[in-house]
Design goal:
The protein is mainly alpha-helical. The chain is built from three helices and two strands. The protein has helices spanning 3-24, 71-79, 81-84, and strands at 57-60, 87-90. It starts with a helix and ends with a strand.
Length: 91
């Protein structure tokens, strides 16, 4: 293989790896000065649990045919995983 082609492939791999690392990095949290931080207990939380739970989000999942690739959705519905995470799923 030509040396120029090898360098081009190496550079392409380096660019792909860099993009992957940047895309997977956690976003930086904005810094707040100490004088802008809320005082402890100023958020109005009394420590009690909320009295009502929000309504489950309604989701409709469409599929063309019954095939093995839809099996995880059926299993999740049968095991109650969708309900556990607050989803009302219609298959």
């Amino acid at each position: 293989m030509d040396r120029g082609v090898q360098l081009l492939h190496g550079f392409g791999a380096l660019v792909c790896a860099s993009v992957l690392l940047v895309a997977c990095a956690a976003p930086a949290a904005p810094a707040r000065p100490a004088d802008q931080l809320p005082a402890p207990g100023a958020l109005g939380q009394t420590g009690s649990a909320p009295t009502s739970t929000p309504a489950p989000a309604r989701v409709r999942i469409a599929y063309v045919t019954v095939a093995s690739n839809i099996l995880p959705m059926w299993l999740a519905q049968d095991e109650g995983i969708f309900t556990k995470y607050g989803l009302d799923v219609e298959l």
